[in-house]
Amino acid sequence: MKSISLLNISFAYSGSDDLFTDLSYSFGTDKKVAIIGNNGAGKTTFLKIISGDLLPDSGRIVRNAKCYLLKQINTDATTSGGQSQQLALTCAFDSGADILLLDEPTSNLDAASRTEFFNKLRSYHGGAVIVSHDRELLNQMDVLMELHNGKLSVFGGNYDFYIARKRQMQENLESKYTDVQKEIARLNATITTAQNMRQHHEFKQQKDKANKSAGSRIEVNALKGKSQETEAKRRKLIHAKLNKQLERVAELSAQMRNDTIKVPLPSVKVYDKEIVRLENLHFAYGNQMIFSDFNFTMRTGERVRLLGNNGAGKTTLLKLISGVLRPSAGRIKVPRNVAYLNQDLSLLDHDKSVVENIAEYAGILMHDAHVIAANFGFRGDASKKKVGVLSGGELLKATLAAVIGTEKQPDLLMLDEPTNNLDIKSTTVLENALDQYRGAILIVSHDAAFIKGLHIDRSVIIPG
Question: Are residues 8 and 58 in the same domain?
Fold first, then answer.
């Protein structure tokens, strides 16, 4: 069978720590393999090394299969992301390569294009190595591989299998963590008991010494010296055990996941009413008509998904409702407190810190902003990081903290492809936040797994 084999591959970018260390795996034509991991783990770099675009610092690559690398698409002003992605995927499938290397292949694809891609991938004659955060796609894979801290963990199944194994591993970690905590408590109790006993013995010895003759006192001091030496050795042994357990609990704590965030309940009672009304809306880009006599309404707390082909006008509608764009005709009625999270998450000031952005956006004191930052995982120095240096997942959390972190939350939250370029961990954080949020949601997303967890009330098709 044709294959590409990596043997003890290591790689580091100049001036940085190793990205990979001693990675080995053989990719064949009989398997569809997915590589998952947090943003920054090196997944795209790994694909480039497999393809030969990058050379490893050490190790060996044995290739006897033709591969085709599809890189992430950078769209331009004249072509939509979905159209560019479809064209690139067509070239990949027409390449006849033994192994396709696909980086985020479902990005920007609408429902019809996704279905077409899944069918082509399923029937493709060769193998595939795919970097993706798309859980619907990941569930169609034969093997999942997780890249984490420079190491590769192989899970022999699809995404659901991976989640089940990770849950089991997490439960094992939690069980070990509990056991170690119990051992730490036992050792601390032993140390306390020993200290109390030592103080009691020393008091008793001082009392006995005062009542004894000089010869007897010499004998008592000799016995006391031996006893203290034995006790010192025992204390040293117990403290060594305690330090080892404290190191162990720190290791386990670092491995355990704790990505929960806290979204407060609204400060005022929410009444059922109409909050969005679009009447006879007209809008065009030059001669291209996007909306003509378009009507749309939403109510308090309603969750609505916008559907339509790429270029139909879903993002345009969000911009019209948010006030970024103005219609050429028609009427728009929206609540005063609206938040629009575009695809670039450009709501925050990149030159200011996380906590400064929260205070400024929400109009609150810095002390209160620090509390909100902590609720969203930014504790200590992390809250002082400039927004411009945050990763995609961190930027998402910082934006959510500013927008829905206070009791005075927006009546309407609009999101445009919020899971694009997010790793699975960050997507889970977003799901958790939106599950706690009680306002209305208007969303554009092609992420079927994400949408399923949002409990959408209805979908609106933009005819386009």
Answer: yes
Q: Are residues 138 and 214 in the same domain?
A: no
Number of domains into which the chain is organized: 3
Q: Domain boundary residue among 112, 136, 157?
A: 157
Closest among 395, 399, 444 to 421, alpha carbons compared? 395
- Tokens 């069978």 label which residue? 1
Residues 171 and 152 in one domain: no
d(CA 98, CA 51): 12
Strand pairing report for 99-103 and 127-131 = parallel
User: Residues 176, 284: one domain?
Assistant: no
Q: Do residues 401 and 443 touch, judged by C-beta distance below 8 A?
A: no
Evaluate whether residue 267 is within a structural domain: no
DSSP element (H, E) containing 144: strand 143-148
Token duo for residue 283: 């809008």
Spatial separation of the C-alpha atoms in residues 297 and 299, rounded to whole Å? 7
> Given the structure tokens 């408590």, which residue do they identify?
185
pLDDT in tens, 141-161: 999 999 988 899 999 888 999
Q: What is the pLDDT of residues 234-291, one digit of tens each?
A: 888 888 888 888 888 777 776 655 556 778 776 666 778 999 999 999 999 988 999 9
Domain stop point among 122, 157, 192: 157
* Residue that is written with structure tokens 């996941």 in the block: 257
* Residue 263 within any structural domain of the chain: no
d(CA 444, CA 451): 9
pTM tops 0.70:
no
